[in-house]
């Protein structure tokens, strides 16, 4: 699936049940994971989000859009993410 982020957008604080691979088509994607240093990947780069780690993703740019392709393989009927409140 693809996702687009406007400048300054972020995801909800969440976890995944299975690994997620994010490939950046345009812009820069920053991922903050609990207990780890933030990771930023830019156009043409990919990263793997580990399962069962609390995280949120950002488009830190104030002027540039972000577009990513997300690869997620899981058991049937498994939700893509589990939001944390």
UniProtKB/TrEMBL annotation:
Domain Cupin type-2: residue ranges: 3-70
Return the InterPro entries for the record.
Cupin_2 (IPR013096), RmlC-like_jellyroll (IPR014710), RmlC_Cupin_sf (IPR011051)
Coiled-coil positions are: none
Domain of life, per UniProt, equals Bacteria
What's this protein's name?
Answer: Cupin domain-containing protein
